[in-house]
């Protein structure tokens, strides 16, 4: 009987895994299909001064794009070329991924650890005066969009500490400020989840038992409630990573930090200068490549959550 | 009973926003036509070039690069901004609520559909998804771009909202009072209106308001990345075009944040502040309503 249960359990986890894999394949296919839609504009001179941009969707061009992409992967093992000569998408990724990872990894750790601590603080002080510092602050930061914080800090730093070179990219600590900025929103998100998960355990008998045994409040929270709440916190690692990537996009773009998101913009084709947007090459290969990197970060975060749960035996 | 400060502050701020949106454009100091002078010639000689700094030349919050008064821009833009935001969220909920309720038995097509929709779009940042779709060439020059964009942004997150509603409806359907309703032969429509909605309603309303805050922020983020809800391309040279946002919403004003923060911080700053205050207001309203609906529960 026990064996049947075990086999059943394994079957179920394989099924869940399969579902996830199919989901990711669908997302990647959708990404590729959207990016490869042809973007050839025909520009026709108008009778009056000026030009008219015209766009006509053609299935043959779309088909060509797709076959070229697939044959590129098959024959050259490459996602394609970039706007620069003799630079493949992989070369660009090798160049830009480490820079972004320098931000993402510290930011992920920061938002998880500090976020959970903040969440516990919010939970402990939810009914007393310090809840303004707890829930109130979490809440305020969740209402402030990342771009606002970035612009304000950028402005403040350039005005107050121009000598610190916090915004420079040539110092060894150049990743520090972006990492902190990127982690703010995900951190508050984690704090919110943590305090909600802790509150959901309210009123359970095991808490009353622990309290009646005379354990200190700290011990009850960390050893008893938190251990139970951790399961639902760790199932949110995917969303934390998604929020992180969103912030990364904004922060890198605004600070001009030359990472993945920055490259994504140059690849999107319209370079934005002061007066004009010009359509240069739409580098589909680069966009797909960066999309895949973001995707794998999300998968990695999900896997981390799974591994943590597994090692803590709270699956 | 504890006073619900969140709710009162939220209502207070929301009514200020409402006044600004509907009455603001008719106030005497607001330039409704949004005319601007790029050059000014003060009485003591010299030439001033826009953007003008705050409190310079009678511009309370400064002016933009066209010489238009920032205060007027923000006040006039409030209507367009809130129109877009509310349309998105209302469409989203109008689709998500029926989808969620159809799935209350947790079997069959609808729960499956909702789950997939949710997972498909929640594994990738909404900003990137929205930007990729809104940058598709057929949409770039479409006459009805604004309406399509509103639908696109609304639909991307329908899955998430419907998933939450579906889950709660299913949890509710397991409760004894629902079974009691079924046993005494209440018709399905009456079940929904009399049994499910009164219990799901508060949560839906609370989420509705926090969704408004999310959408306000999303539009700001898209604007930072130069993706607008409504835009036209205006040619400025051979193969170069400028994106003009055809509506007056706040997003347009922050598009050049990267350049402006050194030269004219006030151009992106005040619209961003307006976005922050709106997001804050709707979050406050949501939280206040949650406390209001839960006031009978023991704390």
Automatic annotation (TrEMBL), chain B:
SUPFAM superfamilies: MetI-like. InterPro entries: MetI-like, MetI-like_sf. It comes from Cytobacillus horneckiae. It is a multi-pass membrane protein. The lineage of its organism: Bacteria, Bacillati, Bacillota, Bacilli, Bacillales. The chain crosses the membrane at residues 6-27, 81-104, 116-140, 146-165, 215-241, 261-285. PANTHER family: OLIGOPEPTIDE ABC TRANSPORTER, PERMEASE PROTEIN, OPPC IN A BINDING PROTEIN-DEPENDENT TRANSPORT SYSTEM. Keywords: Membrane, Transmembrane, Transmembrane helix, Transport. This is ABC transporter permease.
């Amino acid at each position: 009987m026990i064996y049947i249960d075990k086999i059943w359990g394994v079957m179920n986890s394989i099924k869940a895994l399969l579902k996830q894999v199919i989901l990711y394949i669908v997302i990647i296919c959708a990404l590729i299909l959207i990016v490869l839609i042809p973007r050839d504009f025909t520009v026709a001179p108008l009778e009056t001064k000026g030009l008219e941009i015209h766009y006509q969707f053609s299935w043959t061009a779309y088909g060509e794009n797709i076959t070229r992409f697939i044959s590129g992967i098959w024959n050259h093992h490459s996602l394609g070329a970039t706007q620069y000569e003799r630079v493949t998408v992989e070369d660009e990724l090798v160049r830009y991924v480490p820079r972004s990872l320098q931000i993402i990894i510290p930011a992920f750790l920061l938002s998880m650890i500090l976020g959970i601590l903040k969440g516990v603080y919010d939970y402990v002080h939810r009914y007393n005066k310090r809840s303004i510092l707890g829930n109130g602050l979490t809440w305020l930061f969740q209402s402030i969009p990342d771009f606002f914080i970035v612009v304000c800090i950028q402005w403040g730093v350039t005005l107050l500490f121009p000598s610190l070179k916090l915004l420079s990219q040539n110092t060894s600590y150049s990743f520090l400020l972006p990492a902190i900025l990127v982690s703010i929103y995900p951190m508050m998100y984690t704090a919110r989840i943590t305090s909600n998960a802790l509150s959901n355990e309210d009123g359970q008998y095991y808490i009353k038992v622990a309290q009646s045994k005379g354990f200190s409040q700290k011990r009850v929270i960390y050893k008893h409630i938190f251990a139970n709440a951790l399961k639902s916190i760790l199932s949110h690692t995917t969303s934390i990573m998604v929020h992180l990537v969103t912030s990364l996009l904004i922060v890198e773009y605004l600070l001009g930090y030359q990472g993945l998101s920055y490259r994504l913009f140059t690849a999107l084709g319209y370079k934005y200068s002061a007066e004009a947007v010009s359509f240069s090459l739409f580098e589909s290969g680069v966009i797909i490549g960066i999309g895949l990197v973001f995707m794998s970060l999300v998968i990695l975060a999900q896997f981390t959550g799974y591994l943590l749960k597994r090692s803590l035996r709270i699956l | 009973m504890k006073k619900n400060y969140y709710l009162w502050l939220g209502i207070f701020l929301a009514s200020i926003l409402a006044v600004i949106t509907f009455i603001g454009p008719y106030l005497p100091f607001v330039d409704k036509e949004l005319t601007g002078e790029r050059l000014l010639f003060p009485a003591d000689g010299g030439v001033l070039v826009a953007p003008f700094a705050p409190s310079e030349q009678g511009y309370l919050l400064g002016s933009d690069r066209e010489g238009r008064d920032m205060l007027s821009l923000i006040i006039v833009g409030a209507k367009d901004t809130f129109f877009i935001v509310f349309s998105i969220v209302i469409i989203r909920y109008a689709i998500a609520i029926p989808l969620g309720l159809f799935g209350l038995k947790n079997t069959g097509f609808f729960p499956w559909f909702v789950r997939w929709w949710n997972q498909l779009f929640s594994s990738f940042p909404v900003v990137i998804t929205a930007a990729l779709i809104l940058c598709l060439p057929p949409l770039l020059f479409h006459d009805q771009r604004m309406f399509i964009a509103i639908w696109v942004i609304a639909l991307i997150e329908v899955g998430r909202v419907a998933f939450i509603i579906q889950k709660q409806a299913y949890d509710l359907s397991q409760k004894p009072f629902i079974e009691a309703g079924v046993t005494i032969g209440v018709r399905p429509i009456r079940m929904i209106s009399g049994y499910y909605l009164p219990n799901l309603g508060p949560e839906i309303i609370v989420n509705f308001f926090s969704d408004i805050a999310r959408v306000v922020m999303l539009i700001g983020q898209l604007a930072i990345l130069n993706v607008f809800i409504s835009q036209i391309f205006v040619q400025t040279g051979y193969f170069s075009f400028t994106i003009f946002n055809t509506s007056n919403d706040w997003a347009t004003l922050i598009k050049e944040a990267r350049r402006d923060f050194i030269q004219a911080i006030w151009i992106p700053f005040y619209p961003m502040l307006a976005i922050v205050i709106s997001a804050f207001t709707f979050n406050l309203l949501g939280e206040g309503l949650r406390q209001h609906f839960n006031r009978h529960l023991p704390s």
